[in-house]
Amino acid sequence: MFTPNGKTELPFEIPLKPKGNKPLYETYHGVFVNIQYYLRSEMKRSILNKDLQSQAEFIVENKVTSKKGEVKSVEFSITPESLENVKERAKVPKFLVKGSLDSAQCCITKPFTGELEVVHSDKPIKSIELQLVRIETCGCAEGYSKDATEIQNIQIAEGDVCRGVRIPIYMIFPRLFTCPTLATANFKIEFEVNVVIVLQDDHLITENFPIKVIRC
């Protein structure tokens, strides 16, 4: 078919079906794991003209397959005794931070929410941050490689916050860089949230919370 000079638009639609028993996973842009889908078009031209090609990525989101179960809040208290991987615990300043996460099972289209409260701290606070971390596990010749990388870091408080004041936790899951928690025979994609308290002397206090991301 020959097209006239100028701009010609050709509407089309294609049923998106998996090949064989291989499922179509949701689009995900990671560091060691990437799930991407592309549509490639090619225009054949005469012998004296070079063929034209173009490629565009499209996003795949699966239908809602799981209902969000009963929402259970996660209560937490952060103290020097609750910290892990601390070499010199005696040098850690005394503090108490408590709060709650609304749920550890998170709908990807809704914000991650909760609250925290600084009850007391021997040293002044510089800032409080919320980190979203991806955990990617990949199969390799030696077995499995597991790597954690930061997706985003949000500052939820700045300065030496008032004691006894509830600070809201609110974070949107970024599109493309997050997907529903996924486990296959060859790789896994999991997520965690870190609450990071930075003291004035740049001492870091970190508490880790594994979460399950679903589409609901």
TrEMBL record:
One of its GO terms (biological process) is intracellular protein transport. InterPro entries: Arrestin-like_C (IPR014752), Vps26-related (IPR028934). This is Down syndrome critical region protein 3. Transmembrane segments: none annotated. The gene is DSCR3_2. Coiled coil: none annotated. It comes from Desmophyllum pertusum. Belongs to the VPS26 family. PANTHER family: VACUOLAR PROTEIN SORTING 26 RELATED. Gene3D superfamilies: 2.60.40.640.
